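Me: I hope this is not a bother. Any chance you could explain this protein sequence and its structure tokens? It all follows right here:
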Amino acid sequence: MKLKNAKELTNKFLSQKDNNILEQARVFLFLCAMLQTASIFFNTDKTNIINEISLIFSITAAVTFIVLAFIIRKNPRKIILTGIILYSALLLVNGYADHITIFQGILAKIIIYVGLIQAHKDKFRKTVIAYSRLLLTQFSA
């Protein structure tokens, strides 16, 4: 088997379960966007410059989460990791602007983190299994 067929072989091994993982990650990215959109409407104190920066960052993050959810099939592991990092940065910026936001919606934040990290872990495991099978077929041929 030639190395240029590696992508086809990898896609063959990553099929149905991989789609379920990507759909799970997509749902959590849309959930992040939905929560950021809701936080934009509930942010009533716009007197402080830090709150205005937090509001702009929340709008940008909501749009970015939607874009990440739509392009997750291009490079799933990197996009899921980007979503985790962006969500963490968003929580830090909002926590700096208003310390109460760290504890508001803590259950939703935990669910989002667990869902995204689980999707990233599952995707990484599936990729490692596919590449190990690819190596086995390379050496057995």
About this structure: The CA atoms of residues 54 and 94 lie 6 Å apart. The helical segments are 6-13, 16-42, 49-70, 76-97, 106-140. The chain has five helices and no strands. The chain has a mean pLDDT of 75.
